[in-house]
What we know:
Layout: E1 3-5, E2 22-24, E3 52-53, H1 54-64, H2 72-81, E4 85-88, E5 91-94, H3 96-107
Antiparallel strand pairs: 1-2, 3-5, 4-5
Amino acid sequence: MQTVHAYSLTAAESRPEARGEDVELPKVVAEEALALINLNTEDKMTEPPSRYTEAGLVKEMEKRGIGRPSTYASIIKTIQDRGYVEKAGKTLHPTEVGDVVSSSWKKL
């Protein structure tokens, strides 16, 4: 028999494969019919990307080397004045114009 390292995210901790221990798998030959013992389904919903706050945007600009500390406020004001983003609460949400401009830049 071949030994395979197996694990399960939903298994009880008492099972060897749940603890990340080696488990021996039975021999299987080609075209052998196998019986389904269990089938679990899960609904998983994706979430939209989190939006930047002004502070988060400044941090991202610093990381990417965009602007200087003295220009961060004017950059944020410019993208708001041009209608690329709208401020909703503390977060900045892209407008349709902002989405078009962003996708155009990604193509370059």
